[in-house]
Amino acid sequence: MTEPTATSQTPPPPTAEAIVRRLAAWSKKYPRGVTTHPASVEIGAIEDDAVRFADAPETPKHYAAESLNALATEIHRRNHSWWHDIHGNRLTRNRGELLMLIVSEVSEAMEGERKSLPDDKLPHRPMAEVELADAIIRIFDYAAGFGYDIGGALFEKLAYNATRRDHTHEARAEAHGKKF
What we know:
- This protein has helices at residues 16-29, 39-55, 61-78, 80-83, 95-115, 127-145, 150-161, 169-173.
- By secondary structure, the protein is mostly helical.
- The protein has a domain at 87-180.
- Helix 5 packs antiparallel against helix 6.
């Protein structure tokens, strides 16, 4: 990232960490779902910063990937007791079991969509939304627990998918193209 010069007209984009800190502070300050509150102006500014961060040509994707990996590390830290026994010794986790727990969260999201249910623990949110958040938490915990560069892999996969012919409208419209 280039340093701003004294003659810069536009300030550099904020860091992902700064955006996350502002968003966390905002979410503690204002209740969810209040869109007519004066806070909506503040959240709009945070969203604008996030867009500036993502769109800035001088902000390499690796900063965003590093931020995702930092989030994965934080999630894994919060799940310490699932990975260590009472004495702090690391447990051997079954990878297949952990992957199926991710699948179970997606299944619960589908059930929430199928029945249009509110979440039972966060009733102000749709069940599907909360279960997808649970799936992300489990994915990031898994990635950090096994040392995966989930942020880097995500951006590489997005770039690769952008080059895939089978992801085009034309290919999907063909006789044996992917329908979903």
